[in-house]
Amino acid sequence: MSINLNAHAFAGNPIRSKTPKAHDPLSPSSAFQSLKTHLLQNPETTSLPPPPKSPLFKVLPFRKGRPLASSSITGNNDDDVPSWHLGWISLPDCKCFLGKCGVDLTEDSLVYLGSKVEDDVVYWAVDVSGESRLIPELGDKQFCFVELRTLMVATDWSDSIAMGELAIAGHARALLEWHNLSRFCGHCGEKTIPKEAGRRKQCSNESCKKRIYPRVDPVVIMLVIDRENDRALLGRQSRFVPRMWSCLAGFIEPGESLEEAVRRETYEEAGIEVGEVVYHSSQPWPELYAYLNSLEDHILILVFGYVLDIVGPSSIPCQLMVGFFAYAKSLEINVDKEELEDAQWHSREVVRKALAVAEYKKAQKTTAAKVDQMCKGVEKGRSLSADFNVESGELTPMFFPGPFAIAHHLISTWANQDVPTDGVEAGSKQPNSSISNL
């Protein structure tokens, strides 16, 4: 099976590729002024026309980190797979829905996401976590608040539009989480207020007025390679499901370069010394931590992404995963049990075979059907866990994070083609080409 990605999951956002200039109607400042005018208007008491050159506003509600979504099937065949879509609603409808809950929609509650010049549309996000009465209201229209991690797995990675919607949802999720975590100034403790249409915040204390911008936490993730023996080092955390292996990873420390972080983390976790470090690609990774509702959810998360903390949300709104190939100078493994449960060298042949039997596409289709049922208000009636076995029904001997994780592409690139040792060449090894023999 070939996996084609024009960009990593959560990258390639189609509405934030270029920020319009300040005087443009679609820019954050102009759109925000227009937004305030719209919100002041009451269609029942005024006949005032919208402001001149006013773009169309679409709003994406979130509840407890879950974006609003819908699902549809375009074909008429029984085997057609449903596809999910973001639940954009118009600004008047958003005001109406919240008004029925006794909530006034204000400009400070909306966060600017981006725009599409060709459609004259500006996109916003709003957190409605406190409005439980919205659920039946939106459910009647076959909308549902769905975990971002579930939408990630349900996304058809060959569909560029679907991947773009996933990137928009990830961007919005990270921004809203940052807003929830930055309600007070870290310098003086006073409340913060949104600025620039929610793209930054500022301390309300007149003697402070500290500017606060969205936080991004860089993480190095590396496939360590034993060049002489044609092997790769893979690790296991104690929270991994059985038989799952992945790349080593760790946060960058202050005053540290990316290459230094790769070498330090590899030595700390596995006792392996690293020499040459070659860049592969990077991936924005919005905060996907969530409560696990069942064993099926546990399996779903761990197979297709990084391990999530089972005790709930973290305080990291958005990570930037920076991927590398790292070439080992020493081969004896000395595992730090506080960091890893185990680490082992695996041959290219073994890794390639494990990639070949993993049924990523089957699980994607199953999860898409699950989202479709959720949006239609139907309880799922089948187990998902069987979809992670090989076709014979036997358990696969080992597997790796799925195609939405950068770890998957580091591992599969090495397993299926020669990895360059030249930084320039490696930098061009983006996931826009087919990864074959999977």
TrEMBL record:
Gene Ontology CC, one term: peroxisome
Keywords attached to this entry: Hydrolase, Magnesium, Metal-binding, NAD
UniProt GO MF annotations: metal ion binding; NADH pyrophosphatase activity
PROSITE patterns, alphabetized: NUDIX, NUDIX_BOX
Its EC number(s): 3.6.1.22
EC top class named in words: hydrolase
Catalytic reaction equation(s): a 5'-end NAD(+)-phospho-ribonucleoside in mRNA + H2O = a 5'-end phospho-adenosine-phospho-ribonucleoside in mRNA + beta-nicotinamide D-ribonucleotide + 2 H(+)
GO biological process: NAD+ catabolic process; NADP+ catabolic process
Residue ranges occupied by any Nudix hydrolase domain in the UniProt entry: 214-368
Matches recorded under Pfam families: NUDIX, NUDIX-like, Zn_ribbon_NUD
Needed co-factor(s): Mg(2+); Zn(2+)
Family of the protein in this entry: Belongs to the Nudix hydrolase family. NudC subfamily.
Protein name (Swiss-Prot/TrEMBL): NAD(+) diphosphatase
Organism listed in the record: Gossypium laxum
The organism's taxonomic lineage, starting at the top: Eukaryota, Viridiplantae, Streptophyta, Embryophyta, Tracheophyta
